Amino acid sequence: MAHKRIRERLRRSALYTFGCLGTRTRDDDQPHALHGAGYTRTVQCNQPHLHENKPPYYCKNNISTTKYNAITFLPTALFEQFRRVANIYFLLAALLSVFPISPFSPISMIAPLAFVVGLSMAKEALEDSRRFLQDRKVNKRNVSHHAGNGVFEPKAWKDIRVGDVVKVEKDEFFPADLLFLSSSYEDGICYVETMNLDGETNLKVKRSLEATLGLDSDETFKDFTGTIQGEDPNPSLYTFVGNFDYERQVYPLDPSQILLRDSKLRNTDHIYGVVIFTGHDTKVMQNSTHSPSKRSSIEKKMDLIIYILFAVLVIISVMSSVGFMIKTKYKAPNSWFLRPDNIEVQYDPQKLGLAGLSHLVTALILYGYLIPISLYVSIEIVKVLQASFINQDIHMYDEDTGTAADARTSNLNEELGQVDTILSDKTGTLTCNQMDFLKCSIAGVAYGVRASDVELAAAKQMASDVDNDSESDGYENNSGWESSKKAPIKGFGFEDERLMNGKWVKEANVDDLLLFFRILAVCHTAIPDYNEVTGTFTYEAESPDEGAFLAAAREFGFEFCRRTQSSVFIREKYTNHGKVVEREFKLLNLLDFSSKRKRMSVIVRDEDGNIILMCKGADSIIFDRLAKNGKKYLESTTRHLNEYGEAGLRTLALSYKRLGEEEYSAWNNEFQKAKTSVGVDREATLERVSEMMEKDLILVGATAVEDKLQKGVPQCIDKLAQAGLKIWVLTGDKMETAINIGFACSLLRQGMQQICITVPNLEAMSASDSTKEAIKDNILNQITNASQMIKLEKDPHAAFALIIDGKTLTYALEDDMKQLFLALAVDCASVICCRVSPKQKALVTRLVKEGTKKTTLAIGDGANDVGMIQEADIGVGISGVEGMQAVMASDFSIAQFQFLERLLVVHGHWCYKRIAQMICYFFYKNIAFGLTIFYFEAFTSFSGQSVYDDWYMILFNVVLTSLPVISLGVLEQDVPSEVCLEFPALYQQGPTNLFFDWYRILGWMANGVYSSLAIFFFTIVIFYDQAFRSDGQTADMAAVGTAMFSSIIWAVNCQIALTMSHFTWVQHVFVWGSIATWYIFLFFYGALSPTYSKTAYQILVESLGPAPIYWVATFLIAVSCFLPYLTHIAIQRCYNPMDHHIIQEIKYYKKDIEDKHMWKREKSKAKQETKIGFTARVDAKIRQLKERLHIKQQHSHHNLTSSPQQQQQANLL
């Protein structure tokens, strides 16, 4: 416990000058002037009961992310169901069916509608209940709150109120937005992890007011009171303006005293805080969006098709009514069998308008089979089954966590096959929050032989272009961690015997090596923590990079073991004849890292009394500050840094400077004056004084750290790029980090032109220009110039990457600029948005979705990704280390980013094609069936008579044609899953909507019209006046109707068999079983008493079965129906085959096994031309090598053709 007490006593405030701590609020600082709208929040500390009445009344702390609640479920869910056009029609038909003019009974119309709507609503309720259970779990979390008299008791989060004093323990989440009062550290600091808010893994340091440092125990809150006045609830994560009235003095508040909900307390035993914002007023909830109602683009288009069919239905119903009115007017009076003297209203020629209207209603109901109500319930069933196949896909199962893929909603399965743009979070999604020290350059010598993930994947890609797949797989298996016999060390992936186990002392530049290792061990702000189990130190660092540097220093023999207020202690193993020596470095000053400075420095005094400045930072910053005699290793180090960057590694340069006593003393006086100054210029003064010290540096070397990508991320991105998908990265990380990850993922590469859009430096602008309009004009110019540069680029292989930060996005997303920004982004090969808030992630997603009118997919793993997941057409959550908020808000969840490849390229492709073909086929079969009813009614003088028995019509969609179409929607595969992955360009059939465009839809409809005409007229011609029975009798209406229905059953089921590319025993049973079911039904239905079977009594056994003309007619009519389709696909496959047609034939003739060269050639063709991913990187490298070879050949040719005198002159030159 000794190390813990030391850490608690340690006052860190003296170490920091920049960065996250900012400036300690002093007693003489002036409070903020808070007036007007936006600053009405008043919080009575430790008196939450004062806020329960209006005014002020603040919201409760319970949250809800569900789409429905108990009150809104019924009306909202019904609205969602009746947004479907067909449901509206069948609702009207059900209402009309209660009247006598309906040709069907009310129950036959109401029951199917109630079943379809009820089933869909039940599914919605089930999916939303999962969100409700997650919300309840969060709301029931407990936190210690002040119950009075200095006693703290547990209390559920949902019961926390504004003004409550809470005590949050280590590794707990903050239950609300809090004012930080004090912590277990005596100088009032705490470490906070904001991964759920901005995606950053590095810890933030927060600090309380000095006035509240005394509130360091439970008893001190017995009589605590105070008043907070500040800003109203808003979504800005990085700002807060307020005042704290405590003990008759007012103190200004800033973001460094605010602890936000859903961030976590780390490396601090406990903190005390006062609740400022609760529930949906908290900043994280202000950044959230309401759960949207999502519909797929196919479903929206299906509504339009149903509008068209409804228009057709109305037209033919009107035609039927007009025909009926003409018949009623001219024929009814002469038809004595209709009893004109006792005629019903709907047949009365004296009331022609009423007769026509009643027949119109009858026709609208009778022809309703044109609009398939069973389509919706069939799609629901198919989508649920598709979702179950996604959930059970063993290839998307993560063995490490035991997590399978989860299709949380089945409404959007087909959308997975139509994605155009992917918007991805970085931390926890692309990366696994782990840094590994991999390579380094010291004194101009490169060390580290292990390849990075990027290098391994690129090498495999290049090998696959030369060797066969087995060879490249062997390469992969012999690389990476598997090649190392010892267990991996967290943060340390370095391999090079020249530096390990003390062998570095035998190197030529041993002094430079010693200094390099000491800089790693000393230049940081971490705190050591001794692990008694392993006997080693772990480090509580502000960033993963620092942890990796300290792990590397430890493995090299320089173990950081202790820190005091003024010193850092290092255990050195190999510098004194193998003995471990603990050395003390007195810490004189620390110039902390910030995103603006891009470097950090420490000034220390070693045991020999030497004063040394150690500095590490971005290479561009360090190189600009080198002394003339400090550039000895500059050229070689620069070359190594370029190589590390190409390998996707994050790099820092290390340098030092030795100081004399007088030089340091003079500078330190200036620094202390700047540090203790008060005013708005304090930070600028500190920066200026620091600049004076951080110059004339001597370069020692550089580090290369790998931000470990999640398994398979580079390969997944490469495959998605080959499939034609665009990938945007939206992250809360710094720009430098985002760029490094871009290189690691091959979203960026060497030679790609980076377009960085940033807010201009206001200090460089005149006072009159530093306004919002001037900033907007500057950003607009940057966007315009970048767009013009892309348009003027002549090189077809040129690639551009757009990089923009959150501040700039604030302006770029405004109405007058967002379309220009989007146009620029679309022209770029990759887009990286950094330092963006959750709200901005959602806004960017909305811009892409609405601006491009194409399908977007957002993927993330934290609460900060919920907004964009809900805003995108498809939201994918990763069940990672950041909690379940993203998963609960998502439509699909997976365990790793790499599974997105299979989710889209395999399941997305299959689901899109299945649903598209299924809907087209549904319209085909219902048109083919429904129009025969119209033809017969016209044939019988618009009598309203149906040629089919009622049970035939009921069973047509429910039994006789339902299972084959479901098997098509669930089991159809144009190509196997492995072929989908080998030929990623097949995916583009979805985004281009190849199988659900108007050409295909109208083609299927035309096929349905043709089939209806063929079935009706061929049946009538064959049976109308031909001998039907052995005694020469002709067929009656029941026989004609049954024969016609038999032809329909054969035609539509044979048609779906021709449509299928993939057959299993299930399809065979469903297709041929449906035809068999028709005859089995006809047999048993005919066997019933005539009371029930009516005109169908014994129709198969006695009437149709013995008649050869029935069987011959059924066969010929069925063949005539699908003959045009068969001819069409035969011609298409011969003269204009699609990609999957070619692959199917190659697989059928086993050319993929017999002719490897052809198979490989076809695979190389099946890649979309892309400028991101490993393929693009390899292609760029090959082009570069070819250009060099071409130049070399030209030079050789020139030497051969030149005269001896020219060659002699060239040699002299």
UniProtKB/TrEMBL annotation:
Organism from which the protein derives: Stylosanthes scabra
Origin superkingdom: Eukaryota
Keywords: ATP-binding, Magnesium, Membrane, Metal-binding, Nucleotide-binding, Translocase, Transmembrane, Transmembrane helix
Subcellular compartments: Membrane
Keyword set includes Protein biosynthesis: no
Positions of the P-type ATPase C-terminal domain: 887-1137
EC number(s) from the headed UniProt entry: 7.6.2.1
Name of the protein this chain belongs to: Phospholipid-transporting ATPase
Family indicated by similarity: Belongs to the cation transport ATPase (P-type) (TC 3.A.3) family. Type IV subfamily.
Domain P-type ATPase N-terminal: 43-110
InterPro entries membership: ATPase_P-typ_cyto_dom_N, ATPase_P-typ_P_site, ATPase_P-typ_TM_dom_sf, ATPase_P-typ_transduc_dom_A_sf, HAD-like_sf, HAD_sf, P-type_ATPase_IV, P-type_ATPase_N
Biased composition (Polar residues): 1199-1213
Residue ranges of the TM segments: 85-101, 107-126, 304-326, 357-379, 922-939, 951-971, 1001-1024, 1036-1058, 1070-1088, 1108-1131
Reaction(s) this enzyme catalyzes, per UniProt: ATP + H2O + phospholipidSide 1 = ADP + phosphate + phospholipidSide 2
